[in-house]
Amino acid sequence: xxDESSRIGDAYRARLDRLSRERLEKVESLRERGVNPFANGFxxxxxxxxxxxxxxxxxxxxxxxxxxxxxxxxxxxLFRRMGKALFLKIQDGTCQPGLKDGALGPEETxxxxxxxxxxxxxxxxxxxxxxxxxxxxxxGIDGVLIRTRTGELTxxxxxxxxxxxxxxxxxxxxxxxxxxxxxxxxxxVDLIMNEDVRQIFLTRNRVLRALRRFLxxxxxxxxxxxxxxVIQGGATARPFVTHHNALDMELFLRIAPELYLxxxxxxxxxxxxxxxxxxxxxxxxxxxxxxxTMVEFYQAYATYEDLMDLTEELVQTLAREVIAPRxxxxxxxxxxxxxxxLSGSWRRLSVAAAVAEAYGVDEAxxxxxGWLAARLQEGGVTLPAGSDAGRMLMELFELRVxxxxxxxxxxxxxxxxxxxxxxxxxxxxxxxxxxELFVLGRELANAFSELNDPEDQYTRFAAxxxxxxxxxxxxxxxxxxxxxxxxxxxxxxxxxxxGIDRLVMLLTGSDSIREVILFPHLRPE
Length: 525
Fold this sequence. Notes:
The protein is of the alpha+beta class. It is built from 17 helices and 18 strands.
């Protein structure tokens, strides 16, 4: 070995603890004996689940009379040595144990696949090598199905092959408050050790498949729009900024696909949706991750009221995919100490009515800018200079109302000044045809009847520019090409965005957005 290779090898070993270094010595010993500790090419014919489902009802005599040859593979999770015999339990991607704090006890191993190894069946040399396996190793087993005296479906091994040596030992426990950040950083270990975590992401996958099916069945076309945009737009948020070297230009990671999707309405695609990532340069919290998944969809010749009905139906349809209805047929989610009723019709309440209700005053009171400013001062909220009554009303809503909306509630009639892309109400131009859906005190969806008057849109963009110059770094810039698209004519339409991460939080009863994102953003170690 060269001096350079030796130096690199020493640096690698220095990263490891004592137990890991001992396992690394086993790797070197195996190689010296001609055994590849990271083998490839093992053909798997069955999964644990397929064995349980296909032959779980066969008794010992039936299995003996018609032997079932199998080749299975998985991670070694339990190892019992009994003289001339070994009992192993392996975990593959289809059948996981019901783990408690990551620890395996007898009652938690029923869903693992048992393997029986006898010295007579595999030979003395192979038996000695199998005894040297460690928990966490990935192995392949060639054998037949049997049922043991205790009645457990088992693979009786004819040969066992080490496929991947686990250099780091699995932890005994991997749950609890002290390990929360470690779980998120090492999600790969979290998924091995904690079945409830794995189920969250299986549920997420079911929700996404059902969401696509729901929209596809209603004639929506799934599309893709740019992730890197020349102009930040589609929402009021601070963007991430990057640089394109070849074009020597600044680009923004998108904060929303909205303006591109509405260009497609102009082009004649009358029902479109996109399910993908958005990026917003904001803080981290239980409800916020700077990179998050949303679905946005747009429907020509629909109104925001149509989308309220559609949203009720959509969320209830997704809930039925993952939640068992109660005896009375109701859909109830238990989350964050609350029982949330998802079935039935949801409450609809205007912003002004919600604030008035929270303060116990008449709605006319909350239209007074002086009263709004006084309440904000009491709450310690400072707004940028020039903020109008609409902006103040929304700040009060966020301060006093938002966190109280536990049951599904549509909040409607937003001020036009905080809704630069929404259509004005015919009955009151100071308001817009918009709703936000709140559940468990957080926004789940945002929708409105779309503004398709190019002159009005230009005026609103201009107002956003004024706000930027006054210090609002989340205000939108002018998008001349979008104005040009509207000038060709966009049909009357309604559009909506739903936060997928928050939706999965709701449907799985998770209290943090980090629990439903496989690799959430964290500060560097």
